[in-house]
Design goal:
The chain is globular, with a radius of gyration of 13 Å. It is α/β, with parallel strands linked by helices and about 120 residues long. It has helices at about 30-40, 55-60, 85-95; strands at about 10-15, 45-50, 75-80, 100-105, 120.
């Protein structure tokens, strides 16, 4: 909203679904509520998590996981899981999934504050 993007129809990539980092445990992932809330606003949400079994995410939460996000495809990127694989590639590579003018939100504060647009 700060960047005056129209929320309806915006594409957002959520990186990480599990509650814990580097773990396939899908019990009580709070990210599911974030996905639902964004979808309620008309946002097209894609989710990627290398630790999660795709069939289990679909069965438990109705979320179809991406194998590999497409570069330059998203208006917003939300780093919701603190997996080592995301840390290792770094914020520049993760931002590579975003279109020009995208917003990068680091919910786990994994990277320096100047590497993200929003953080918790």
């Amino acid at each position: 909203m700060k960047r005056r993007l129209h929320v309806d129809g915006v594409r957002v990539l959520i990186l990480g679904l599990t509650f814990k980092e580097n773990c396939p445990d899908l019990r009580n992932p709070r990210v599911v509520a974030v996905v639902a809330e964004l979808r309620d606003y008309g946002v097209q949400v894609d989710v990627h998590d290398p630790w999660v079994d795709t069939a289990e995410a679909q069965k438990e939460y109705g979320i179809a996981l991406l194998d590999t996000p497409k570069p330059n495809a998203y208006d917003g990127i939300v780093l919701a899981g603190a997996h080592d694989s995301y840390r290792e590639v770094g914020p520049s590579a993760l931002r590579g999934y975003g279109r020009t003018g995208h917003v990068f939100c680091d919910l786990k504060s994994d990277f320096a504050s100047e590497d993200s647009d929003l953080r918790l």
